[in-house]
Amino acid sequence: MELQDALLTSQREEIDMIIEVESRIDANASFHRILLYAPPTSTSVQDDPRSCYREGSIFPSVRCGLEMAILNAIAAMKSSSLVNILHPGTAAEVEVPERSASIQICALIESNGSPEDVADIAATLVGEGFSTIKLKVRNLSQVARRPDPIEDARVIQEVRKKVGHRINLRADANRKWTYEEAVRFSSSVMNCDLQYIEEPVQDEDDIIKFCVQTGLPVALDETLGNITENPLKMLAKFTHSGVAAVVIKPSVVGGFENAALIARWAQQHGKMSVVSATFESSLGLSAYIQFSCYLELQNADVCRAMNKEPSPSIAHGLGTYRWLKEDTTFEHLNIHHNPDSGFMEASVDDAGHLVGKFQVNHNVILRNFTDEQVRRYQLRVDSEGFSVSFNVQEIGASAGNNVLVFLHGFLGTGEDWMPIMKAVSVSARCIAVDLPGHGRSKFQYFGIRKTAREPSLSIEVVANIVMTLIDNITPGKVTLVGYSMGARIALYMALRCTIKVEGAVVLSGSPGLKDMSARKFRRAKDDSRACSLIAHGLELFLDSWYAEELWNSLRDHPHFKKIVASRLQHDDIHTLAKVLSDSSIGRQLPLWEDLRHCKVPVLLIVGEKDEKFKRIAQEMFQEVNLGGRSTDHSVKICEIVEIPNCGHAVHLENPLPVISAIRQYLNKSKGV
User: What band does 138 get if pLDDT is binned at 50, 70 and 90?
Assistant: First the structure.
């Protein structure tokens, strides 16, 4: 009702209204404000849509859903449809009358089984009326994985032989081939008349090179999902004619506005704009069907403006509806064989009706997800000369073998990770600990502190007791996620404890200082800081700490004062100071040589404004690539992700791209 009221007020008073959406990421801005104004999709082809682009601070899928809700609310208010709202002339179009408009649907096949089995499935789909089929080659399931791209090519060859050349065939490699593997595949399918292959190579910088060498048409997909700025700026390097299509997932690129921008660019450059789904329900697919119709109309507008012949209609990647065992709607999507056209199609009018009359089928809802309960407990670990009672926080399913352990930086706590853990916990068990001297963890010496020699709390010692803690929590392997000091601990464990650690996400981390004099200087500096912390107290120490250049970007964050206030909760100042001194990067033995022997996948995450750690990440990346090798050769051993609009504290300043990066890392390394 609030959305409807805002829309009515906006229309009546001819002013922009602001919809405030409460954030689910506590460490980010409290509210996301989205101005309601005419999207660039309504501008003429001569207008420059780049001026209308704006980056969002919410998940792309959330933005897409919000845009869908707003557009359909406007449509309901005007007794119209989403297509008519996006393209006001639709109802009056002579070429595409509203009630007869339909969208061709592309079928989707996973290439499991033998080439003959896949070909039989394709033939069945053709018999049902599908004229376009996409095959997922390079399947990731452990059972069906084909180690040789020539085996994937055999599937394409067999399918083409079975269905003939009147059927459009598309292939999707999902960036799983090296450049050399992709070229081998292409040499075997040259006579298969592929409409295109999606993302054949792992490195997007090799896409044009692949087009030039093989002549095989390519479509962009995952490349579009990695856009973090104006999409037109990134797309400028893909004007080559070998890039034949863009596969646009609105929920991945951030909604219909961004999708329309990308599609218009493609249409202006003579490329296909294919709308694709990520296993949405009938509600989402119905909106996509209407949006696909809009893109067909937009394409006609573009062709007229450029004095070009209209492009033929294309099949859109909405065949995922067949993969859902149950749906959230009572009324199912009407996708059928049209005897007049001979194509498998979806009615735009029926799709609009389903959205307008949508009702949730509560019979298929197994569980409503709200805030998942965080499990908190203390776990004691004894070491030589001391013990630590760790404060542990857990969220996510305890079953399964996908376990992430989060390690905070100096002055932080496990609570720093909670927004990210909640987002990732859908597919993983997430565990955060308060490191010694921090938060609610308790450090205790054995013997009398005044007389006994205090044991060290070096990075190596802390890593060992954290490893013991992890052994007590879970018997299997874990992936470590560490920030700053926690990143150094995570990296040390990933390089030295591969029996227990299967990967590491290193945020703003370093393997140590190479130069001995630099280490000596840093030891002295951190020892002085530790003395100052004990002498002047935590509050004055925080003022001095966060005044340093490293935190320039964090100081501009709207929650900076709240973040600093949370650092006052540490009770054991003596142990905190000891950690600062003992775990100083000046005392840590450098791990640069160890990087060359890295055996587990490592993701390096750095902030766009953190120049120092960007340079360190590049050096780490080069060192790992000199010798690091994963046991799974299909997985890149090391990658770098740069988080936009933030500095050193990436997980606090801009958590959404960090969440996305961690999810993509898990997808690649574990197939989550």
Answer: low
For residues 359-367, average pLDDT: 75
375-514+588-670 has which CATH code?
Answer: 3.40.50.1820
* The two three-digit tokens of residue 616, written as one number: 């360190």
Q: Which long-range contacts (CB under 8 A, 24 or more apart) does 235-238 make?
A: 235/262, 235/265, 237/208, 238/207, 238/208
Quick one: pLDDT at residue 451?
47
CB burial readout 562-584, b (16+ within 10 A) else e: ebbebbeebebeebbbbbbbbbb
* CA pair distance 17, 7, nearest whole angstrom: 7
pLDDT for residue 385 is more than 80:
yes
* Residues 650, 607: Cα–Cα separation, whole Å: 6
**Catalytic, out of 134, 136, 442, 636:** 134
Catalytic residue status for 134: yes
Q: For residues 323 and 281, give the distance between their C-alpha atoms in angstroms, rounded to a whole number.
A: 10
Query: Does the pLDDT of residue 82 top 90, yes or no?
Result: no
* Sequence-ordered list of residues with C-beta below 8 angstroms from that of 369, at least 6 positions apart, any chain: none
Give mean pLDDT, residues 297-319.
Answer: 89
Choosing from 249, 578, 609, 668, which is the catalytic residue? 249
360/9 Cα distance (integer angstroms): 29
**Does domain 38-363 bear CATH number 3.30.1330.50?**
no
How far apart (Å, rounded) are the C-alpha atoms in residues 564 and 542?
Answer: 7
Q: Global pTM?
A: 0.63
C-alpha closest to that of 394 among 383, 409, 404, 380: 404
E strand or H helix that includes residue 379: strand 375-383
Cα distance between residue 488 and residue 510, in whole Å: 6
Q: For Cα atoms 553, 431, 630, give the angle at the middle one, nearest 5 degrees.
A: 85
Q: What one-character-per-residue DSSP string does 478-526 give?
A: EEEEEETHHHHHHHHHHHH-TTTEEEEEEES-----S-HHHHHHHHHHH
Compute how many other C-beta atoms are within 10 angstroms of the C-beta atom of residue 30. Answer: 11
When comparing pLDDT for 637 and 326, which is higher?
637
Q: Domain-by-domain residue ranges, the chain?
A: 38-363, 375-514+588-670
d(CA 45, CA 266): 12
Q: Which residues of 276-297 are buried (b: 16+ CB within 10 A; e: fewer)?
A: bbeebbbbbbbbbbbbbbbbbb
Q: Is 525 a catalytic residue?
A: no
Q: What is the C-alpha separation between 496 and 260, in angstroms, rounded?
A: 48
Residue 204 token pair: 């997007």
C-alpha dist (Å) from residue 536 to 170, 246, 530, 532, 541:
67, 60, 10, 6, 7
Could you tell me if 610 and 573 are in contact, meaning their C-beta atoms sit under 8 angstroms apart? Answer: no
Phi, psi angles (nearest 5°) of residue 345: -135, 165
